[in-house]
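TODO from last week: model DUF4198 domain-containing protein.
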Amino acid sequence: MRKTLIATAAALLPLLAQAHMTWLLPNSTLVTNRDGVVTIDAAVSEDLFSFDRALKLEQLRITGPAGLVLQPEGQSSARHRESFDVKLPKDGTYRISNFSRALMGAYKLGGETKRFRSTPETLDKDLPAGAELTSLTETATRQQTFVSREQPGEVAFTPEGTGLELLPLTPVTDLSNGDESRFKLLLDGKPQANANVTVRRAGNRYRYKSGEFTVQTNAEGEFTIGWAEAGQYWVGANAGERGAPGGPGGGTRDKPIKRAAVSATFEVLPK
């Protein structure tokens, strides 16, 4: 069990360190090379796009124009990042996402309360025999990015349907400062109204101003980002209940506390 919990804790790094950001970062959001290959780095960091720890890749989903489904290639692991390639077979815009679900909570055994971390698939194995589950929180986390080969074309992605996600309503590649992009924020496939969305520009490590602002979704879950400056951007949102693990109202096996987070990365070029 000790080995299982250690492995699970490593998988939950992005969930345990909410002060840190998780992200997928392509080497370019507009691919024009002959072979049509883009490389994606996945990491966790406190300073945006500085590689602190590798992000564990759980369920990679790569969707292309007209619902085309692709598989990653050349995946590699290092201490500070995970990396993989995506070959874009045709012109248009592609969505790349990494999705994970995790559990954390507390149980009583022999009069002692202990905290634990697990996954929906391994919960029964991770709980000791005879343990009384006293609280349970389920977290769904998604990282997204978008890349295009040559012309971005029409942007019309089907919602993935679980957890939080950003659904672009206008092109989100080949952007320049002064452009605007429209999105819809969805939670389990439904519009998330009146939610706060954080926008952060990279490079704050080298400047005093934070380059961060917040926008709010409307009643239909839609919002607009105006890209005032060139650079790389991180966009994130959270949703869900609050509760103290191990305390009253801390969630049960049948009805866990549910939380969700999403982040997405974008590139804005100078005009």
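Done. Confidence is low (pLDDT under 50) at residues 1-18.
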